[in-house]
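Kindly review this record before class:
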Amino acid sequence: MHSFILFVVCFAFIIELPNKKLEKISKILKEKALEKDLSFVDIFTRFSEMGIPIHNQDKVIRNVFNSGSPDGVHPTPVGYQLIAQEIFNALVTDGRIKRHKKIVCLGDSITFGAHVAGEGTVSGETYPAYLNELICSYLKNNE
């Protein structure tokens, strides 16, 4: 019985909460981006500053309240819009939006647009789709 309790106590010190892991990853990515003179959009920190996620309450990350799913990872269409807006703001600030330039959205299931209309495309409710709309509108208004 004592070794089981000891194991659980040791195990608790090894496992990090997801947000702690994300904080570390964000810090590493930001440092690497600075080293390489690349733009870095820290969505995790931005969401944290906005108090997101609020477990099973917010409208940004899929949860039981807003989708009937205990997902807790993937954004809702509202979340994808926020991600696109943050990336767009950074692109504008850094002067990276230029006519005839391509922007590649490379990533995981969030970039894919899991669980929303248009998943895997630049149409529908994915952040690449929303980002495309923002960039096209910006270019149209700044000709």
Summary: Residues 18-35 form the longest helix (18 residues). Residues 18-141 form one domain. Helices lie at 2-14, 18-35, 43-49, 64-67, 77-93, 109-112, 127-141. The two ends are 73 Å apart (CA to CA).
